[in-house]
Amino acid sequence: MKVALYARQVSPQHLDFIANLFAELHRYDCKIIVYQPFYNLVKHVIPDLKNLELFNSGSEIHQKVDFLFSIGGDGTILDTLTLVQNSSIPVLGINTGRLGFLSSVATDQISFAIDSLKKGYFTLDKRSLLRLESNRNLFGDVNYALNELTIHKKDSSSMIIINTFLNGEYLNSYWADGLIIATPTGSTGYSLSCGGPIITPISDSFVITPIAPHNLNVRPIVVSDKTVISLEVEGRSQYFLASLDSRSVTIDSTVSLAVRKEDFTMNLVRLDNNDFLQTIRKKLSWGLDTRN
């Protein structure tokens, strides 16, 4: 089994875990390929392994690894999408962050996780992606997202207007600080914090959630992911922000945007002792009475 390791940063309190991760992968006779900037951060605490390789871009691991381990929080998993792209490499999230809806494996479960992968005791969650199309090349070849597209005002003054169409039919003009179009995976992210609903991963839908809307009767709406959602942005300011997950660019009112479902999916590894309903109960403390 060949495993790629990716992380953006490493906190000092997690260095012992990182050393143990490398040791456990070596104990299970796994071949290891490490993201170069991550390796530079941790090379002083990991053993000198002969079967260790380095990579700097996604193309260097396509068709070469069995799994990619994302070490961090949910934001780190969003980054791995730019590495795996349409290669179908399964991604396992190891949670060294905080909430961790997507990074579901705790640091003390790493031996169990590796053993489960070796024995095939896991499921691949095929998470749908959204694709952004525009009259400008805003995000290059990686014009898709696992969580959401967000349109947001760039300054802190006046709100913006996002004229929204579903398959060419006018839906609404959102007077707001911004607008989120989220996948089911993204429904537990930024959209949730703005009052959007939780959507199960297999719902085949998008949720459109306004950010601080001027009209309080404007609520989030769930639409089929077979819908093409078109957006036209205007406002007093000249420039606005468009974000795909954690990547952002500046746009103006001449930019036309359309969102549709991407043709491929992202594979997230789910160990057999975990599922989506269990995750939201645990992460959102459902069923717990904080008065007791």
Question: What topology does this entry show?
Answer:
Blueprint: E1 2-6, H1 15-27, E2 31-35, H2 36-42, E3 52-55, E4 67-72, H3 74-84, E5 91-95, H4 110-119, E6 122-134, E7 144-145, E8 148-153, E9 160-166, E10 169-176, E11 178-182, H5 190-193, E12 205-211, E13 221-224, E14 229-235, E15 239-244, E16 247-252, E17 256-271, H6 276-283
Parallel strand pairs: 1-2, 1-4, 2-3, 4-5
Antiparallel strand pairs: 6-7, 6-17, 8-11, 8-15, 9-10, 9-14, 11-12, 12-13, 14-17, 15-16
- What is the assigned CATH homologous superfamily of the largest domain? Probable inorganic polyphosphate/atp-NAD kinase, domain 2
The side-by-side strand order for the widest beta sheet comes to 7-6-17-14-9-10
The structure class reads: alpha+beta
Q: What's the count of strands?
A: 17
Oligomer: single chain
Helix content: 10-25%
Q: Which regions contain 5 or more consecutive residues with pLDDT less than 50?
A: none
Q: How would a crystallographer describe the biggest sheet?
A: 6 strands, antiparallel
The number of distinct structural domains comes to: 2
Report the CATH architecture of the largest domain. Answer: Sandwich
What portion of the residues fall into strands of 2 or more residues?
A: 35-45%
CATH class of the largest domain: Mainly Beta
Helix and strand element order: EHEHEEHEHEEEEEEHEEEEEEH
Shape: globular
Compute the separation of the termini in Å: 47 Å
The number of helices is 6
Say what the CATH topology of the largest domain is. Answer: Tumour Suppressor Smad4
C-alpha Rg, in Å?
20 Å
The chain-level mean pLDDT equals 91
